[in-house]
Amino acid sequence: MRAPRRHLSVIAALGSAALLLGACSTATAPAPAINSAPADSAAIPAGLEKFYTQELDWASCGGVLLCTELTVPMDYDDPSGKTMTLALNKRPGGKNAAGSLLVNPGGPGASGLETVREAVPNMFGQDLQRGFDVVGFDPRGVGSSTPVTCEQPAEQDAGRAEQFDPGSDAGIEEMRRDSAEYAALCAERTGDALGFVDTISAARDMDVIRSALGDKTLNYLGYSYGTSLGANYAQLFPQNVGRMVLDGALDPTLGNNEITMGQALGFENEIRAYMQDCLDSGDCPFSGELEDALDQLRELFAEVEAEPLVGSDGRSVPIIDFVNGFIVPLYDNSTWPMLTEALRNVMAGNVDDIQYFADLTAGRESDGSYTGNGTAAFSAINCLDYPMDADIPTMRAEAQELAQAAPTIGKYLAYGAVGCQDWKHPATGNPAPLTAEGAAPIVVIGTTGDPATPYAWSQALAEQLSSASLVTYEGHGHTAYGRSNDCIANAVESYFLDGTVPADGLTC
Known about the structure:
Structural class: alpha/beta
Distance between the termini: 40 Å
Low-confidence stretches: 1-40
Mean pLDDT: 92
Number of helices: 17
């Protein structure tokens, strides 16, 4: 298997945007001290006045879109020190728009700019698009904001083609050397910003964004990892929460190992659901009963693990890239037929469809360039947000548990701690409950068949947040709003537009 610095990523394709989700981060911090403010404006944290009172200079950046940049402190404990730049865009609402609606697609590492540019027109109802200026941002370290920079395209291609054997101590040592080289490259090319791309800092940035937009409270829609940003924002600034929807939630009490196990089980269950649907279709490249077909799939994975496939462009597709490509269509059951066709082609000797999906997870274009920096940001944010134990016996025990619990996918999620072992900056995250006492009503949405953020995580976050209502979508796929049904759409849009909080326990 390939080095864990580029290990299995969890990806969501919402609309036309590729939204990195992966092993997701949570962290907590005490609320900052604040200065008093007039009753018609939100309070400004002490020492941050010059950031909170910025005036945004919006300029046209294609069609109806407007773009701008915002400055935030690199280190909120040293606001007079270095700064970082955040990139924002927006789709202006109608003439009676009720302020801004900030959107984050997840990750960590996904671009909010891309979401607003590409996905929002197809995912959001027209009334919601008219009712708010829909604003996207690339969080610190991501994309067009002060980015984490690690590899050039040729280096990233080479890294994706690598394959190691964690079954031996020598294989793990090779993985460690490779990961240490990658960590050193990230530190050299990113500089001091690499130590400040944690979730807490990004959540604090959101309050600067709110103020610069001229909104007293933050209206926010966060998907997947974006729910961690939203929940931490509510914990830090409960008095500034407006209307907030957290879709496909993370449980902030879970550590890295628990997150990994939850996702392994989630994807294993979704693979079973997909495979049964494939068999029932009568046009499936697998045969027999469900367990027979799953055995055939595992045999296919074993063959790729033993001998990587080669795409028509000559690039190698080793097992982790293959599995990354395999899981992309699992994020939405409407794309399951695409997975069936891709697997049928693999069995006929053509891996190009799977390679295309794997390229989507990495942000690789057909010309060999890479858009964004999702892989690098994914690593950097997670290494800061989660303490990880790279002790070999510990990792081997975890790998065994993953393989037993999720026999199809679990082994490919193991050994991720190696990727953070030699990271220049130690983890600062501290998984713990988030209550956001005093916040306005928050809506948490969970999907019963969500493979990337299991339904139980949404239940847990809704239970922790003091003002949360839980809405359940009974279905498959990752997240719900924009890809599920009218019941979810009406609940979300009525809440944002009219302030109608859906009943706790609503099931769609």
